[in-house]
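Interim report, section 4.2 (structural modelling).
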Amino acid sequence: MQPPEIDLTKLDAIIERHKSEKWGLIPLLQDVQDTFGYVPPETIEPIAASLNLFPSQVQGVITFYAGFTLTPKGKYVLKVCRGTACHVKGSRSLIRLMQKELNLNEGETSSDYQFTFETVACLGACFLAPAMLVNQTYFGKLAPNKVSSILDQYKKSRGAKDK
Amino acid sequence: MDKLASIGQLEWLRNKILAQSGDRKTIVHVCMTGCRAYGAASIREAIEEEVKNQGLAKEVEVRSTGCHGMCAKAPVIAIEPMGVQYQEVNPEDAIDIVGLTLKKNQLIDRLAFEDPAAHQPIFYLNQIPFYKKQEKRVLARCGRIDPTQIEHYLSAGGYQALAKALANLSPDDVIEEVTSAGLRGRGGAGFPTGVKWKFTRAVAGRPKYIVCNADEGDPGAFMDRAVLEGDPHAVLEGMLIGAYAIGAEQGFIYVREEYPIAIEHLTIALEQTRELGLLGENILGTGFNFDISMKKGAGAFVCGEETALMASIEGRRGMPRARPPFPAQAGIDQKPTNINNVETWANIALIINNGADWYGQLGTDGSRGTKIFSLAGKVNNTGLVEVPIGTTIKEVVFDIGGGIPMGRPFKAVQMGGPSGGCVPKEYLNMPIDYDTLQRIGAIMGSGGMVVMDENNCMVEIARFFLSFTQSESCGKCAPCRLGTTQLLEILTRLTQGSGRLEDLETIKELGNTITEASLCGLGQTCAKPALSTLTYFKREYEDHILEHRCAGATCDTMVISACQHACPAGIDVPNYVAAIAEGKYEQCVEIIRERNPFPAVCGRICIHPCEYKCRRGELDAPVAIRGLKRFASEWYFQNIGSQRDPFPVTKKEKVAVVGAGPAGLTCAYFLAKKGYQSTVFEAQPYGGGMLGIAVPEFRLPRQVIEDEIAYIKNCGVEIFYNSPVDANHTVNDLLKEGYNAVFIAPGAQTSMRTGIMGEDENPEGLYYGLPFLTDVRTGKAIQLKGKVIVIGGGNVALDAARTALRVGAADVQIFYRRTREEMPAWEKDIEEALEEGIVLNLHWTPRQIINTGGKITGMEFVGSQTAYDDEGRARVGVDESRVQTVDADAVIISIGQAPDATFLSKDSQIERSLWGSLEVDQNTLATNIPGIFSGGDFITGPSTVIQAIASGRRAAIAIDKYLQGDIGRIEITDEKSEMPSAAGLALEDEEAKDQPRIKLELEKPEDRIRDFREVEKGYEKFEEAHREARRCLRCDLEKERS
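Predicted structure of the assembly:
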């Protein structure tokens, strides 16, 4: 399937917002990531030009930080926490369960761009261990059946409005 | 609100706010930060709705606040000034909360914290154990104010410290105050904050920068998150004061993007402070200029390191650089920069407001003040905790944290995240501060405390941390980039069962090299988890490598199901449980017999390590594996009996076994199964070892032992009673008689003596636990009367106490030196003993047995107390101020048994061990003489029956191998039974998922002490056993299916 369409004209507004900011590359990229869901490779040169940097420098920053991705993500980004507290409470088997149910490995996006499955080092929600984030919503004290029903919920709302 | 042009205007505004806020009498604090994940927003809405509907809008304020700390019971609300906390609140509860509590002062039981011991509700915050030992200084306002309203901060006294600093203190005064307060960096390194400020102030160069490191990346840490979300102004005020002291004009808060609520609240706080003119130019008219920008992290743990953080602020790749120059000399943009952690900044206003002396009233000499910890993992009260530095780990984990769920034993606590080490239970009483933990290879760190229990594997924990640091390593310096990868590879191999003994040395060498040679803190500390777990849990590492055993039963390649792995004999538990569910009781017993020829005995008295690891136990209660085993074996002996055809003898070799206890008989059984002729020599007139002479009839009826031994005999095992092996019939003689191998398993049956006054006089009425039990068991007429004292806390002591009650004692009191938790006896037996009226006296050391005319008339005890040294290690000493003299008619000393090898005096060529037993190879149980093996309690000291059985089987495998000419290592790994069942049980059955564990009934205490009837009753109906069996989650099938 094709990745979702993006409106690259929005890039100009983003660049406007940040180009006079001191050391504004990372905030700019964060804005791009938030707007498009990823950093489209074709935006690297215009961004570099606007900040008077080499494209390789911009590329270097994008690839260094886990928060930026050069490929589009799914509509629902599931981040399962693999931090210490969650690990100690059994996040590993949940991760395996989700891999099976979504048929995705870590870091992969489904071919219909509905789901991206990731693991995160720590969400800081340790008291909810084991925890996961679906876009901006937290789910805690997960158990296998809870995970399954959460996934079913999101699978059913395909085509429905974004949460 | 208008910009404040002077301090006077600030105070005017504060007065106005205070006056306006006094209107409402009651405030309902609803945590809207962490608890949001649990629906706190709908709860707040519901309460607001109800307050309006019930006409209380004028008297009640419903306030959104930050974290209250008790995250384990989210969603949490507090009601002031009543001082009440309600937890696990639902929107539906709003009606009652408003209608009953707010309107009528009636408290709601179901929403209150439940005292775990008394099962009573505790409503008041100052009585809830979780809060009692805390000292909330930094977190004082968190959970009490709305962090998105600066008015709340002001009315709580906010920005007073800033005003005081600007008006009355010079920048040097401020630095002086912070320095003498002794505040140390709360990010983990603990560098004295005032000193760092001084350095930055002293360097020439403009502009100067100050930074707040809010990139809390340690997995398991959420202290900074709570402060940023719940009281962001505390951080801002600290930064303002710091900027004033150092002479900085620009500040940055670098906050990780994974904290959206923190970012939201910081953004609002910055806007509001700017609006009031507390940030910007000419703050409060004093000519002081300072503003703060927020920079969001982009998902790199290494950016928590200060030089990487600064690079990230400058929009570059977050790679650290060498220091010197330190940020104070050349930081952001090569200008003098001061970086401090969120919690450090949050302490500043407190110091300026209350003074250095006040600050130093809490904490230790070297580490003043309080510290916030995030308590997580296997602990009941997970959440946020603030305690004076110097509080012990035990107090935090047990008194505040409420201990480990399910009452499981504490194994270790990880402190300081991936830069920290694991602290084992020996150091539980260690006070927490910057310096103490370093001595044992751990650090206090930023405050993350993750608790682990016996179901966690320490090797896997080390691997886990390495996988984190390896993926977060920036890659700049070779030691870290290559070292973390190699360490991870080694640890991964270890968890997958492909480890080698050399790996342990490699881990140490590699770890030390990475530590010494890495460029930044990430590399310099990444080896700590591996090195500290290797130091304190070396046995676990070795077991992974040599025995493919994982103590936590988590490493997949070695573990099919946790229960089977936990069983020392490796019995295929899921399959025999499934057999019971299918009504195939004979098959069940046959499956057990693949590894254990004593199913009926174990069904009564096994300590069931399997149940402690049962994954069902994580949901509600473990499957009653032992009870099910008893059920099936009882059916077997009632319906099939002990008859069977003997195993065919297919080998020409003969093996002799010394001792017809569980170890010896198991060895003989498995050898017979392999086709050998095995013969057991037993000194006593009856078999069973400790089972026969020590375990009382009311726990294990004699008939059960007889049935099992009869079965083993019918398998073809020869047993000679009244046939001791000793100086007259030595092991050597056995070899000369034609036995090709000998297994020595006489048990550990020599009673230990106390050595106290009066013992040597051998007065009438003095007994020792094991002989006492043996005499009763073998029918010798022992009549006790009156008061009986039992000294000791193990299984034999408990059995002796309960037996004493049944042979005439009017009253029995047990005296034990240490705590109840330290008593080795099985908890179930202790509870049953207490039910029977036995008194348990703890912390008493025996001092003297008082004899009058050759008969015992009493005993003197002196109080014992446990003292802790600097590192928290316990030493039991005496407390002379407590002395007790009691009357007694009999004393039973039961302080332990030891093996005794004197019967082998003529076989002196067999190598002895230091403690009176024999020296054997741990893997093959072979002694130094080829063909002679030894195991069971004789080698290990008093242990459990299942350990002895496992030892017997191990010996049989090793002897078999030896007789075929192979003296190499043997491998005993978990294997599935030859009679598997595919029944999914609870994995497939929805109803079974909700079925609670069926309790086994006990005979009433007042009835059962009258005789020796069996105390525990089995399942009354088949259906009960079936239902219990169907609770099993078939963890073994999960593996096969995936």
